[in-house]
Task: structure prediction
Amino acid sequence: MSLRRTLIVLMAGLLLGSIVLTSCAPKLPPEPAWEKDARALLDQADDFYAKKQYGPALKTANDFALLYPKSRHQDRARFLMGEVHFAQRDYLQALSNYKDVLEKYPASLFITDAKYKLGLCYFELKEYDLAIANLQDRTRVTDPARLVRTAEVLAAAYAAKEAYLPAVKEFAYLAESAPIEKQKTGYRERVREMVAKNLTEGDLAALSEGVAYPADLALLRLASLMIEQKKYHDAVKLAKNFLAKFPTHPEKTRAEMLEVEATAQLSAPRYSLGALIPQTGPAAFYGDRVLRGIQLAVHSYNLRNADKRVEILVRDTEGSPDKAAAALSELAPQGIVAAIGPLLTREVEALAPIIQQLQVPVITPAASGAGLGELSPWIFRNALTNTSQARAAAQYAIGQKLKKMVIMYPDDPYGRDLARLFARNLGNKADVLATVPYPAETNDFGPYIRRVMEIDLRSRRIQIPEDDAERKKLFQEYAPSFDSLYLPGTADRVGLLIPQLAFYNITGMKLIGSNNWHTSDLLERAGRHAEGAVFTDGFMPEDTAPAVKEFVEAYRSAYQEDPDVLSAQAFDAAMMVLSLIQEQKDTPAAVREGIAALSAYPGISGTTAFNGTGEAQKNVFLITIDS
Result:
């Protein structure tokens, strides 16, 4: 909007007041004849500005100021100069112009706008205190867009000053008022992050006094903080306060868990369960998923067994074999009945030399290396393995009467192992035409797909021309002789590979994948090209079984995200131990015997049996991708 139009709007807003006050307001002296020429010149400057012709706009405004120093529109000229300099990012000069309006023309219609722009200039110049001083009073601002922009600048200024409580309040306003839903989501995430990481105990207490967002987040964080500080009575009070204020809140389960955890700490628990997980280091993400599954299992158990409460003793293994062994050596004398973890194969292997002496059962919910269940009678594995999923994929292929297959896999331990095991499980019941690796991080699968095509053509004794044009024509007319592809790999890579297969006319065949397909990345990248593909996994959150639905809903309520296979397998591992405690099998030896004897445990991640061994025999889910 040009300044001329802005002025018209401002004048219209004042019209009614002018009519009412006409009888008592002093009349302005008649306008000099030259004022018309002055206005015309200033209008010309305004037009240049509206067209983003900033050089001519500035020159014309300066000419006006020099030619007509006594004009009634000097404030408008100064403001226009400020707007030009602001658009050119010359914030110091813009600042000077806006100050002129405020200091020299206190009755100007541009006062509010000048003060707003002054605040923006100070922000750009990193003068955050002055930016806040000029922007925080919004009593006269009615434009929704300006209110949003003001809140954005104030939020950023407060955050830069590490004044996190007012920053959270501004971001919370934006989470409700931003015009685009995606922006609202982003602001809600900023609020959640600041509440979790930046607010002091005093800030949280002040914020939690309200009855609307984000008081809910502050109450949850404050309750959690009280548990960390071992102020359990305060934690119980805060959790109950949350449940009273927000009885239908999506994170109700989380509040209940905090209340139960704090209450449990007020009376010493009878049993302890170890958790050997990486909380730092490269595997920390997976450790977090495992711990959430364990916590949910213990929460569920403690709700029903107030007189046999269980506590979790967490130790950070950092993914290190030595630290995993040290953690178990530390926890065993503390009387844990069992430990869930560790996660990595090398960590589990490090326990074998000491576990016979410690005599504490451990259940790994993630390690996939071969033979872990055979290392010791005290070591168990409740996890999907490469062996089991490759076997299930091969059995599916055989059951579908697929006869000629191609295997394309990432050239890393995961891909190589699955490719080898899948081919071995096919035996002589299907032919493997080609086994083609590709770099694990590649985005361009063309060379590797063409390698498959060349192998296929040569297998049919079709000569591949040396001439580039003839070879291109042959590839364009190519029709595959094989009927299926096995594509173990990660969803983000396979999601790129599948559409490229279609580009090379490799379509209309069965695609079989592995558990790493099970994320939204696959469909986002492969789209319709993945329709009808089948992959293996150890857990299916889409399962409609009542126990699975209950687990998924509780997990979502507690953590605001969907569980994955690690969370499910950790939940099951913990529940196996907890169910044995409930049956009075509450010593390490009794737990070890009880786990080994399980023959049909109804787990969230499938029916599980150990049948006297350390390896869980589990169902492998075959999941079909459809629209």
In short: The chain has four domains: 33-202, 203-267, 269-383+565-614, 386-537. Residues 264 and 588 are 22 Å apart (CA to CA). Residues 284-304 form the longest helix (21 residues).
